[in-house]
Design a protein that fits this description.
It is built from 13 helices and 11 strands. The chain is an alpha/beta fold and about 325 residues long. It folds into 2 domains: about 200 residues, P-loop containing nucleotide triphosphate hydrolases (Rossmann fold, 3-Layer(aba) Sandwich); about 100 residues, Orthogonal Bundle (Helicase, Ruva Protein, domain 3).
Amino acid sequence: MQPDMEKLEKEIQQQSSAIDALRQEVRKMLVGQQHLLESLLIAMISDGHILIEGVPGLAKTTAVKALGQAMGLPFQRISFTPDLLPADIIGTMIYDPAKSAFLPRKGPVFTNLLLTDEINRAPAKVQSALLEAMQERQVTIGDTTYPLPSPFLVLATQNPIEQEGTYPLPEAQVDRFMLMCKVGYPTKDEEREIMHRFDGKPVESIQAVLEPEQIDACRAMVPKVYCDEKVTEYILDIVLATRTPSKFGIPIDHQISYGASPRAGIFLQMAARARALLCGRAYVTPQDVKEIAPDVLRHRVILTYEAEAEECTSDSVIAHILGEIRVP
């Protein structure tokens, strides 16, 4: 190993130990859900937004709230409802009689961690109100543009789309989410632990274990994680196979209506680097890519009606592609 790589690995291991302390603190409130926690950490250090899907009661909101408390960052929560207005999120202009002028009243989007609870219960106008904030990290109120605090992360939860009273998110907004994490039910042992921990006794409070400088330092290390050109080619092959799978010898073109956008390749490489950092490594492996690919791609691969009739899912299509693309 080269000397500079040795130095980089030592720095990354230091950052990884700080993340371990963060994990332990969040575990005071969160039982199980290992994949959800790792996805949240990857999004946090990669400066990417995350969409979390699961039925109610699976600790989606609890996990996000615990992460915000453990990082010591300002945290706001919006519960989306069908009657929500864009001004309820970004803010509006309010007339001040004392100054005889309109002044901005900033909405809850002006925070570091924004939890949008049940995001798909609000109509399209409200969904689009988040687009500028998510992509540009800024908000326009009246004729003035205001920058959002840094870091700014949207951590959205949604119920499965089949449930009554939900709206499908616009594809332009869905593509802004770096990851889409699906949350399942806990195991029997995990549910037993949940019952013991939350049986009416006082729950141990979560303390902030990371300083803002540590968060910035950790995020600055992600682009430095080495990604070999062969791994980059592997990422490109996976993304291209979601668009024209037949060119890679995968006969499932009839199942895919739209493949992943170019943003998917950027996010997949970035998320793989973040996963390597969380594991204390200074380099990306193909396994990092395979592990994080479903979360990066599942909301970007749009299936045809024929595939839905065959009861295919984006997860099954992605798994097929990952099983066929040659691993370097």
